[in-house]
Design brief:
By secondary structure, the protein is an alpha/beta fold. The chain has 2 domains: about 1-145, Rossmann fold; about 185-455, Aldolase class I (TIM Barrel). The chain is built from 18 helices and 14 strands. It has helices spanning about 20-30, 40-45, 50-60, 70-85, 95-100, 105-110, 120-130, 215-220, 225-240, 255-270, 290-295, 310-315, 325-335, 355-365, 385-390, 415-430, 430-440, 445-455, and strands at about 1-5, 35-40, 60-65, 90-95, 115, 140, 195-200, 205, 220-225, 245-250, 275-280, 300-310, 340-345, 370-375. Helix 3 packs across helix 4 and helix 10 runs parallel beside helix 11. The radius of gyration is 22 Å and the shape is globular. The N and C termini lie far apart (about 55 Å). The model has no long low-confidence stretch (mean pLDDT about 90).
């Protein structure tokens, strides 16, 4: 039996191996007799016609399409085109965060046979074990099962699939299918020291309840791999894949203090000398001077903080659970230790005004951050904020995922927010020391991706 996975091609400045798909691939290879083919249309810049050509060449038994909100249009278009192939009846499904929280809409738009809600390892194995019968499996729904995005035909709420509780039981991602060295140098953190980059997740989930994020609702809590299992994978990536840098892409790497201490000590004890970073961000209230010193000693050279806003009332509005004073303190400690500090901000959160946006600009420019990303609010399906504002916005999938806000606070226009983002980028980066350090850090191989970021973030647009 053959499974084919498709990662759509879409407008993105980051190209990294699709970790979720690679985990599912390795899992079903270990626990079933299926073979796997993966089409990464983003990496290979494939057109729809080229994707369909490969599908027909491989003639799979079942096709899984990775679907996030960022490339929803592309995912559903691929599904529809596959269902339109003459004299074929490929079984197709969509999986990922977006169909998990919008299953009925996704099925209606894509014409797929079914969607998988939640993590994909167990449901896909059950489907393969059942000779492709996808009915009556938890978390697996066809359009005939659903009344809307939240309820089944019989009135029961939709349920996510069973999850693998012991993450050590899942084999390492199937790196033989999509080796890191086949990807261009365009990492999560935009700028990185080494190439190829190894991507490692030590956990799944985040217990924080930030209203703009869907992670907690997708995973419900946090599960962690054993440190020994992580170290084994790190060694494998270094010795067998030739990686030159590690990026830990957990949603909350430092949540468990004892765990991150054990991980750093294990890197040191195993004499693993490699630069590593946290591009997905860490919470400032979960690090301190002692921990940051240990992280740096074990190889961490860049730490990213999810800041969102410099206004404490807005941080309360989104249940951030931190103050700007706590955040600033952690940034200063990391800076003093010689780590590269990076922060991410969101404009247009509930409670935002022109005054609070200026407050955030002033803070960012004067802070000890070396790099920063400034974004318009996107309302992610599955986030509490998307539920709270459900009747007040409509998702627009036709534009770049970072190009404009989905919803506007009172008394703010789209132009206000986009001009603010343009303004803060210029003010933040065009300070002599920051600009000099940034230019020194940019490898020639990443230049085109940096320019693409500048265009996407409206740095050259005039209103």
């Amino acid at each position: 039996m053959k499974v084919l996975f498709i990662i759509p091609n879409f407008d993105s400045y980051v190209m990294a191996p699709p970790l979720g798909v690679l985990y599912i691939s390795s899992y079903i290879k270990k626990y079933s007799n299926a073979s796997v083919v993966i089409i990464d249309a983003l990496r290979d810049n494939l057109t729809y016609d080229q994707i369909i050509e490969t599908v027909n060449k491989e003639n799979p038994d079942i096709i899984g399409i990775h679907c996030l909100t960022a490339f929803y249009n592309q995912a559903v278009s691929i599904s529809k085109k596959i269902k339109e192939i003459q004299n074929k009846n490929y079984i197709t499904y969509l999986g990922g965060v977006h169909p998990t929280f919008m299953p009925y809409t996704t099925l209606k738009d894509s014409k797929a046979d079914f969607v998988v809600l939640g993590e994909g390892e167990i449901p896909l194995k059950k489907i393969l074990d059942n000779n492709l019968n996808y009915h009556n499996i938890q978390g697996v729904y066809s359009i005939n099962d659903l009344k809307d995005d939240e309820f089944q035909i019989n009135g029961d709420p939709v349920k996510k699939a069973e999850t693998v509780m012991d993450l050590d039981s899942i084999p390492f991602p199937d790196w033989q299918m999509l080796p890191p060295d086949t990807y261009p140098h365009s990492p999560h953190a935009v700028i990185a020291r080494g190439n190829p980059i190894g991507i490692v997740m030590t956990s799944r989930g985040c217990p924080s309840r930030c209203t703009f994020c869907s992670s907690n609702n997708f995973y419900k809590g946090i599960r962690q791999r054993s440190v020994s299992n992580v170290i084994e994978e790190v060694k494998y990536q270094i010795n067998n894949l030739g990686i030159k840098e590690l990026q830990f892409t957990d949603d909350n790497l430092t949540f468990n203090r004892n765990y991150i201490i054990e991980l750093c000590n294990a890197l040191l004890e195993n004499n693993i000398k490699i630069d590593w970073s946290t591009p997905n961000g860490v919470r400032a209230d979960r690090v301190d001077k002692e921990l940051l010193a240990l992280m740096k000693k074990s190889g961490c050279y860049l730490i990213d903080f999810g800041i969102e806003s410099a206004n404490n009332q807005i941080l309360k509005n989104i249940r951030k659970g931190e103050t700007i004073e706590q955040i600033d303190n952690s940034i200063n400690i990391a800076h003093e230790m010689g780590m590269i500090t990076q922060g991410n901000f969101i404009f247009g959160l509930p409670g935002e005004t022109k005054e609070t946006m200026q407050e955030t600009i002033n803070y960012a420019v004067k802070s000890k951050l070396d790099r920063a990303g400034f974004f318009a609010l996107r309302l992610l399906p599955g986030s509490d904020l998307s539920r709270q504002l459900k009747e007040k916005y409509t998702l627009d999938y036709s534009h770049s995922f970072i190009s404009k806000p989905d919803w506007l606070p009172d008394n703010l226009s789209e132009k206000d927010i986009l001009r603010t983002i343009q303004k803060v980028y210029w003010k933040f980066y065009f300070r002599p020391k920051r600009l000099w350090n940034l230019l020194n850090d940019i490898p020639i191989s990443q230049t085109k991706y940096i320019l693409k970021c500048m265009v996407n973030y409206h740095l050259f647009k005039l209103w």
